[in-house]
Write a structure and sequence with these properties.
Strand order of the largest sheet: 1-8-7-3-4-5-6-2
Pfam family, one: PEP-utilizers_C
Largest sheet: 8 strands, mixed
Main location: cytoplasm
Domain PEP-utilising enzyme C-terminal: 259-543
Number of strands: 16
Number of helices: 24
GO molecular function, one term: metal ion binding
Family: Belongs to the PEP-utilizing enzyme family.
Shape: globular
């Protein structure tokens, strides 16, 4: 049946795909909540389930390492760490004994609480870790209830996997030849999306209720860049898509071959291309993909993977490793960006009505100088091992910059007095992620050595659209002219002050927008490692004058769809 029905989701892994729909239907473990007479017996059942889960995840890790490399397989290290984390499985044991309830009930409750905590953190990357712990919790519940998961061997080559949600362990089990994946839920930063990008599988997430219209066996064309899914296309549309797939494949092969070469426009303008990384496990893939440095090193993983505030020594070791890996190229390390209505398990922070507008990032650090100074001291100590740039998040006015720099200078003086070696020159910059900062960038720029635009938050705040809310997903688009005007304003302020301006949000990795971003005046683009080769390839095809003219036209549009049409010309 031909319907040419167009469904709209979130493009999460670029590329076109055509294939037959196969639903990945998950078993939802059903269980009752009841009291038990022998809690120790329930604890023993839980421990047995944990052991089985550890065995299963270890096998998945081996499979993922073979197919995607150690960097992507490392997500399963995090799953295994959850299973031995006293704050997670230890909490389950404690509550089984205290509440005398069955293991299934306690497992589900603790998993939900930790998932909610992660989902409420301000950083999108960290929010996506909520998916990881739900993945682990579902596995434990399946084992405890004796249910069997979906059999991936049912997927034939050329299938488009359709699911309410896919976890990292689901994606790792994909057999060879899967054409694409679409889901009702999920974000671009979910591990399943990251894995899809690594495997080169186009993915569209966040289709919501529209997904229910897809039947097993439907022919689907999915565009992992635009988020469009065409159900049962006509023959002409299918043929056109196949031609475009061939062209994309050829472009990708050219880009990979030249990934480690510098990126210069056709008329010689240098544009640096960096990687965003969220843990030390991301270093290898970033280097392999041709990253010329790190444009955003999220330090939150150090805090979330511990059951205590990480010590100066623990942080120093992590920063030293990433600086040495990229030496002599720059590594921009963002100071702690955490806070919100749910705190870390070991912290005692007040809950907030609106965490995204609340006590987060630099605001939190100023009110907890002992935590902030521990990080600054660790950064300064690590500075001798490479080229460190320090970046403060969520800045909105000059006084915040001055206060942060005063604390940094205070830490430097302490270390020097203690006889600790510190690099002579460490560039200090800020993230531009609040509209107020972009509007007053001309006032902020003279105070710093560089600025980097975080388009994820800047888009959310500018458009008043929660980036994690599927109901307003259609409003959240960083290509909106209002966002681009703020980018342009920041670039002009940087140029006037004589400092570089980069971009480290998702928009930087959108190859379709590369020409417009170059035209707006950005000096550096930082993105997920997998996007680096194609963005470099796009930069090499750009003529600066043409890019500037195209960006001027984009700024004059009234909506992001018009901007994206111009971008694809």
């Amino acid at each position: 049946m031909q319907t040419d029905q167009l469904l709209k989701g979130i493009g999460a892994a670029p590329g076109l795909a055509i294939g037959r729909a196969v639903w990945w239907r998950k078993e939802r473990p059903e269980f009752t909540i009841h009291t038990v007479e022998d809690p120790e017996r329930e604890v023993a059942r839980l421990k047995q389930a944990i052991e089985q889960a550890q065995e299963q995840i270890s096998r998945l890790r081996e499979t993922a390492a073979e197919r995607m490399g150690e960097s992507e397989a490392a997500v399963f290290d995090a799953h295994l760490a959850f299973l031995s984390d006293p704050a997670y499985t230890g909490e389950m044991e404690r509550r089984i004994r205290d509440e005398a309830k069955n293991a299934e009930a306690i497992c589900a409750a603790v998993t939900q609480e930790m998932s909610d905590m992660l989902a409420a953190l301000p950083d999108e990357y960290m929010q996506a870790r909520a998916d990881d712990i739900r993945d682990v919790g579902d596995r434990l519940l399946l084992i405890l209830t004796g249910r069997q998961p979906f059999d991936p061997s049912l997927l034939e080559p050329g299938s488009v996997v359709v699911a309410e949600e896919l976890t990292p362990s689901d994606t790792a089990q994909f057999p060879q030849g899967i054409a694409g994946m679409i889901t009702a839920r999920g974000s671009k930063t979910a591990h399943a999306a990251i894995m899809a990008r690594t495997l080169g599988i186009p993915a569209v997430l966040g289709l919501g209720k529209a997904l229910d219209q897809i039947q097993d066996g439907d022919t689907l064309i999915l565009d992992g860049t635009t988020g469009d899914v065409t159900r049962n296309p006509n023959p002409q549309a299918e043929q056109a898509a196949r031609e475009e797939m061939r062209r994309q494949r050829e472009r990708r092969e050219r880009a990979l071959a030249a990934a480690k070469e510098d990126a210069r426009t056709a008329d010689g303008k240098r544009v640096q291309v960096f990687a965003n990384i969220g843990s030390l496990n991301d270093i290898e893939l970033a280097l392999q993909s041709g990253a010329e440095g790190v444009g955003l090193f999220r330090t939150e993983f150090l805090y979330l993977e511990n059951d205590h505030w990480p010590t100066e020594e623990e942080q120093y070791e992590a920063y030293r490793r990433v600086l040495e890996a990229f030496n002599p190229n720059p590594v921009i390390i963002r100071t702690l960006d955490i806070g919100g209505d749910k705190d870390l398990p070991y912290a005692e922070l007040p809950k907030e009505e609106n965490p995204f507008l609340g006590h987060r990032a630099i605001r939190f650090c100023f009110s907890h100088p002992e935590i902030f100074k521990t990080q600054l001291r660790a950064l300064l100590r690590a500075s001798v091992h490479g080229t460190l740039w320090i970046m403060f998040p969520m800045i909105e006015n000059v006084s915040e910059i001055r206060q942060a720099k005063e604390l940094l200078a205070e830490c430097r003086a302490e270390l020097v007095k203690e006889g600790v070696q510190v690099a002579e020159k460490i560039p200090v910059g800020i993230m531009i992620e609040v509209p107020a900062a972009a509007v007053t960038a001309d006032l902020l720029a003279p105070e710093v050595d560089f600025m980097s635009i975080g388009t994820n938050d800047l888009t959310q705040y500018t458009l008043a659209a929660d980036r994690g809310n599927e109901q307003v997903a259609h409003l959240y688009d960083a290509a909106h002219p209002a966002v681009l005007r703020l980018v342009r304003q920041t670039c002009l302020a940087g140029k006037k002050a004589g400092i570089p301006v980069g971009m480290c949000g998702e928009l930087a990795g959108d190859a379709n927008m590369t020409e417009i971003l170059v035209g707006l005046g950005l000096d550096e683009l930082s993105m997920s490692a997998g996007a680096i080769p194609e963005v470099k390839e796009r930069i090499r095809s750009v003529q600066t004058n043409a890019a500037e003219a195209k960006s001027e036209r984009a700024l004059a549009q009234s909506d992001p769809d018009a901007v994206r049409r111009i971008a694809q010309e």
